[in-house]
């Protein structure tokens, strides 16, 4: 016993606190459905469409390589071609449905 608290209870509380800390620290690093952005430009965008297709090239007919749900945030590049913003290598999304996050360099 430590301060009148059984050791077993202290160990359980410590383990749960550690798991909680790991969970909280890891949630910011998750990306939706494999469509993570490039991130090196300081540009970050929010999706305004219900579902936004991420394409392999800056063309509406290009292969869909990922999707974002509404209000998802992702890193992006400043490069825009043909109405599509570059998110990462071979990942482009329509600028019509992306809103730059305030305070970022887009």
From TrEMBL:
Keywords: Membrane, Transmembrane, Transmembrane helix. The chain crosses the membrane at residues 9-26. This is SH3 domain-containing protein. It comes from Amycolatopsis endophytica.
């Amino acid at each position: 016993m430590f301060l009148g608290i059984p050791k077993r209870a202290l160990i359980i509380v410590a383990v749960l606190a550690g798991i909680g800390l790991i969970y909280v620290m890891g949630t910011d690093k998750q990306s939706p459905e494999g469509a993570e952005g490039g991130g090196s430009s300081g540009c970050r965008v929010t999706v305004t469409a219900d579902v936004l297709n991420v394409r392999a090239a800056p063309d509406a007919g290009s292969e869909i390589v990922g999707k974002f749900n509404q209000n998802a945030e992702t890193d992006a590049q400043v490069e825009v071609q043909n109405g599509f913003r570059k998110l990462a290598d071979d990942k482009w999304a329509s600028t019509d449905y992306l809103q730059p996050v305030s305070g970022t360099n887009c």
